[in-house]
Amino acid sequence: MEKYRNFKPDYRNDYVSKVFSTRDEADQAYNELSGRGYSQDDINVMMSDDTRDRYFSNDRAHDSALADNVADNAGTGSMIGGGIGAVVGAIAAIGSNVFLPGLGLIIAGPLAAGLVGAGAGAATGGLIGALTGMGVSEDEAETYRDHIKDGGIYMGYKPKNEDDARSTYDRWYSDDTYNK
Q1: Non-local CB neighbours of 115 within 8 Å, separated by 6+ positions
Q2: pLDDT per position in the chain (180 positions), as tens?
């Protein structure tokens, strides 16, 4: 994860995102956003299936809000490409996450609903497209994809205001807590 340590995207006031190298960092960031009033329906989380199994498997204690969101919903999550139809409503209703079989990714939050709505073909080829659709540059999206494949935990959200955007960006990219 060292190779991602110095990655710092340009500041944007309409979307803030980062890939965290450890579960502790991701838990802390998720809890901070939750404490400011953001719900699981506001926060995008992505990780590889292997990362989910390593950090959030169902047989481990659910000791954080992020763990509860990822582990609890993994059992009820939807699979794109598995012949399951009309799951967007279910995802919105239960805040479920989505497993993308061809990519080995777990996605939770607004991005999950968007990828499911786009269908399996768009999802398998559309992770970069989904991120760029939120305004993330293609280079940034590719770096996020690579970091996720290497075990990182992606988190992103649309801030309610400029203060939230600036505060989160500065904390995530300037504070040594999140730059490991």
Answers
A1: 80, 98, 100, 107, 122, 123, 126, 127, 130
A2: 667 878 899 999 999 999 999 888 888 888 899 899 998 888 888 888 788 778 766 544 445 555 555 544 444 343 333 322 222 223 333 344 666 555 677 777 777 766 655 554 444 455 677 777 777 888 998 899 889 889 998 899 999 999 999 999 999 998 666 655
What's the whole-model pTM score?
0.74
Q: Which residue has the tokens 């960031």?
A: 29
8 Å CB contact between 41 and 93: no
Q: Identify whether the C-beta of residue 88 lies closer than 8 Å to the C-beta of residue 117.
A: yes
CA separation for the pair 107, 83 (Å, rounded): 18
∠ CA 135-106-156, nearest 5°, is 30
